[in-house]
Each structure stands twice: as C-alpha cells, then as structure tokens.
Design goal:
Bound molecules: zinc ion
Low-confidence stretches: none
Number of helices: 6
Strand content: 15-25%
Distance between the termini: 61 Å
Order of helices and strands: EEEEEEEHHHHHH
Largest sheet: 7 strands, antiparallel
CATH class of the largest domain: Mainly Alpha
C-alpha cells in the first residue's frame, strides 16, 4: 500500500480501533500508544498511529492506518493459526513461511512454499510417486485422512494434478481462496501424520493410569 504524505498534523486524537490481535488471536478494542499523526494524503486525511493489545497477557504492538475509527491497514498481519506440535523442523519452517507469505498477500510465494511443505512431508514419510499428487495419494494410504479430503485433493490445482511440475502460469492464476483452502488441507495432512498419533498415545497412557 502506498500513501503519499502531503501534510502531517500531530495530536489529532486517537480513534478507537477494534480488531483481532495478530499476536494472541483475541478480538479487542486496542489501546493507543501515544497520539496518532493526522496525515493528509491526496484528498483525504488519515490517522497513522500505533496501538497495543488490551489483554494484559499479550500487550502486543501494532501499527495502524485508519480513516476515523475505520481501520484501513494494520501491521503485523493476522496469520492463519495452526498447531505445530510434533511437526519436524524442516516441514514446520516451510509451512510457517507459506502462512507468513499468505498473511502478507504474497500469494505465489505462498503457493510455492505450500508445495515445498508437502514435498518435504512426502520425503519424511518416503511416499513414492512420479509427481506430488501421486506421492500424496500414496501418503494418504498410510495416514488417517477423511475420504472426502482424499477425493477433494485433486481439485486443488496447487497440488499439480498429474503434471510433474505445475506451470509458472498456474501460480499466477491461483487466488487467495485457493491458497487458504490449500493451507487448511495441509494442516489436515499434518494432523493426520504427526498429531493423531501423539493424541492416541496420550489417550492410551491416560487409560493405563486409570486401570
Ligand atoms: Zn493480543
């Protein structure tokens, strides 16, 4: 986002801004950190300021640009949340980068990192196949994954259908929705591979204690 700064006036009040905290995920009315600057940019004047999360446990800092109390932009962005329990470091690193790219609207980069996450996951589990799609199919026979998800997998162009590599042009065509669905799909696969097992182990040990 580009704003040309034509004129700045200080101490122009700090309008109330409510949003979902990018740090802790809770929704709240953010508290001001100093006064906003009133920045005249073209025909309009906007508030450029800083806020902090109202939760005492968080108090995370954000930058904001608003028109009155209507928020236009805030930084850092709210990222898609996920449980990282038991996910190997290499896979986790790629997936976190995919989510970070999505949050910053870098969709092609996010698509590439989602594929990298899935490829690393297949490497980790030695899933074989000529391309990513076949490797994921092979993987899905080894893990707990709802049938509907297995079937829906081929709908995602990001997974490459049956091509060995997806074309550069395909990345251009992938929209935010498809990226979000692919991230959710990857989360389910990660759960199926690395997290159900540990949940089962914990449940079983709980049962043993009761006996
Ligand atoms: Zn917070």
């Amino acid at each position: 986002m580009f704003y040309k700064v034509d004129r700045v006036t200080n101490n122009q009040g700090t309008p109330t801004i409510s949003l979902e905290c990018p740090h802790c995920g809770h929704y709240g009315t953010f508290q001001s950190v100093g006064s906003d600057s009133a920045v005249t940019t073209g025909p309009s004047t906007k508030n450029f300021g800083q806020r902090k999360c109202p939760r005492p446990e968080c108090r995370g800092h954000i930058f904001t640009i608003s028109q009155g109390s209507r928020l236009e932009l805030s930084y850092p962005p709210r990222l898609i949340s996920f449980d990282s329990t038991n996910i190997p470091d290499r896979i986790l690193e790629s997936f976190q980068e995919a989510i970070l790219c999505h949050g910053n609207n870098c969709l092609k980069a996010s698509a590439i990192m989602i594929r990298k996450t899935l490829e690393e996951l297949c490497n980790d589990k030695s899933a074989s196949g000529k391309n990513l799609y076949q490797r994921l199919e092979n993987l899905s026979t080894q893990i707990v994954l709802p049938n509907e998800l297995k079937e829906a997998m081929q709908e995602l162009r990001l997974l490459g259908n049956d091509a060995a590599h997806i074309e550069a042009q395909t990345y251009d065509e992938i929209g935010k929705d498809e990226i979000e669905i692919s991230i959710e799909f990857t989360k389910e696969i990660l759960k199926g591979i690395y997290q159900y097992d540990s949940l089962l182990t914990r449940l079983r040990s709980l049962k043993k204690k009761e006996e």
